[in-house]
Request: fold
Amino acid sequence: MVTIRSETTESDGDLPLLELRGITKAFLDVRVLDGVDLDLRRGEVHAVVGENGAGKSTLMKIISGVYPPDGGSVEFDGTPVSFRSPRQAQSAGIGIIHQEFNLLPERTVAENVFLGHEPLRRGLVDKRAMLRRTAELLDAVGETSFPPTARVGQLGVARQQVVEIVKALALDARLLIMDEPTAALADHEVELLYALVRRLQERGIGILYVSHRLVEVFDLSSRITVLKDGHRVTTAPTAETSHDQLVRHMVGRELAHYYPPRAEADRIGEVRLSVRDGANNRLRGIDLDLRAGEVLGVAGLQGSGRSALARAIFGAAPFTSGEVRLDGRPVRLRTARSAIRAGIAYLTEDRKGEGIAAGQSVLDNALLAGRAVFPRWAGRAARTVRIRDLLAAVDVRAAGDQQEIRFLSGGNQQKVVLARWLSLTPRILLFDEPTRGIDVGAKSAIHDLVRRLARDGAAVLMISSELPELLGMSDRIVVMRDGTIAGELPARATEEDVMGLATGADRAESR
Amino acid sequence: MTATRSAPERTPAVPRRPVRTLRTAVGADPARGVFVALALTLVIGWLVVALDGGQLLNQSSVVSLLHVATGLGLVAAGQTLVILGGSLDLSVGYVVSLSTLVAAETMNGSDSRITPAVLLVLAVSVAIGLVNGVLVATVGINAFIATLGVGLLLKGYLENGYDGPAGSTAPTLVQTLGYQRVGPVPVAFLLFLGVAAAIWFALRRTRYGHHLVAVGGDPDVARLSGVRNDRVLILSHVLCALCAGLAGIYLASRLGSGAPRVGVESFYDLESIAAVVLGGAALAGGRGGVAGTVGGVLLLATVDSVFNQLEVDAFFKQVVRGVIIIAAVALYARRRHRRHRERTGAPS
Reply:
């Protein structure tokens, strides 16, 4: 008995937790995955990277039982498996943390965690056990800031993600798929996630880590697999891979530089937008000048009021006091409509929820704002032609402009939204996390577009949680903290400067 | 901000949890609003009727109020389930009518046939609920269209086969379910409360209940969490039809015979939906509860009773009911909107 057990543990060590061989999958006629191999060991973090459309999501959905593969084999824990539903994969021990959270905002943490496998006692849901076990799991991942009875909708994004992870752990997941886990997190929250991932690793859980953020991939993973156009390009130990190599594998070309050059001083013009002492229930004492030709970066932690600032300028959640001037003239922007008519555009951070009408075509999405705000704008045929030109100019890749936008990758959706605003020739553009969840190639395309708009004389305000992006793109950075502007930094600031202002560490002994 | 604020609070939160449970339970109760409205309606109604020289809460009017509430309530209790699941059932009115006929014709005035008659009604209801559920959940037809279609089918059958009351309800059933009371409270009303309590319990303490709210809240989340959405929805439609069947048995006991038009004339389809929505449920599903529905039913029945005592024109009565429903839903929408704003303000 004893010998047998020690034998199995030995072979457990050798045997991969998950082994994929020659996975193939096609939708309609498009081959999304072509003979992909992948293996994952216990306690390993294996990163899967690739541009959007490379097949990462499809591969993860095959592993988690959402789709069956057309060809190839999946072995989990040494036995061949073919899951026909997420439920089967879950009960086998495969959990997935989706990019868009799979939580019910109206329900409590405990109810969400145990959804689909509520503990029973005499045939009834055992609420006490549910609460107790949720509390235990929350403690196990080091999260004590909210109780299991909290309503999920009242938690912030970072905490909702913890709930997602706990939800997977509640199923005794031995394999955890994390799909862009940091897409919605601010920098300091990413640190917490790192700690969490390492804790899971110590418990012997194998983690497939899908991310666009290469820094994280290098920080966390022990091996990296690169997918491109449905093929596996390479699998290599992280220690033997360089950042540049990885990018080259992903895009198949060298990216000469990540960020376009900044504006020259003489290109920066008049103040387009100025706010004095702006305040509402989320903001206070906002003093801000935005000049033509510049990209003004807005940094800050989650909840510091970055988006609230953009939404206030855009009239979506307007300032209730203070003064706003456009080109020197006082204006009152009480609704998004009035802001749009004044030449302001706002690309929301919540692309799925507020940015796109998922079921409508690319063309309809691009025409949305123009049709709504300027009904007679340029005549129907002319404006369609113009939109098509813009869609081509921002390089949207779709099967045609009648394709439903939800079938496009995040990067292409964002370009459509951008085309929508460009069709109105805005003079002030507010970008809120413009590259969140977007692959490397599309990201630099969007960076180029943003810079080009500024060069053509637009005033750009850009919010980003990604500090390298913010530092690389901005001509000037304001840092928000607790609903107000904590300070302003020049283009050549460092990440430490920004974090110092964002966390309040610059104020001596505030902790 | 999240981190800086939560850092000092990092004390073990365990001992505080029971307190939070109680508070969140009370705070999240969607039924509170409708019971406040019910109390207000009772007070105002009592005053208005008193000024008119009558009395709202005398024995006979309370009894008739509760009888009105019983018929509507049984239907609405079932409707709550399908609405919570993001569906709805427009066939309930016809199911009620059909059930009165099946019950009365099977019994044919004989006490000995009560059991087979009840069983037959329930079987027919289950069958109709199954059809509704399969059409909505498995075939994927929009619930509005599917249940309207099934309703029209039943309507055709009823109009073709009957032009007036038919059959005869067993006398024992008429005496008990139809007319027996405990003080001013009809036995049938207690049956309604029992059904409502059972549903309340099912929603809170069974897997089915938890899964139903999840399916209504977000079908994708439910599916990816391993919930079998189709089964949950089909079961809900079956339970909804069963409740309508019970309402049919009750009405047959009340009327003494089968009535082919009783369900439609009482507007049970739309009124039951109105009662559920008055109770704070979201028509889109995922939010609400049967306690709210009980409040909504009592509110509608009270308004009915007040207008009956004032002998107000039936047309005007409908107008006021319409105003009440719209006002209530507008109020809920406002409250939700504010909560949503507070929430979306938060993640910056």
Summary: Confidence is low (pLDDT under 50) at residues 1-12 of chain A.
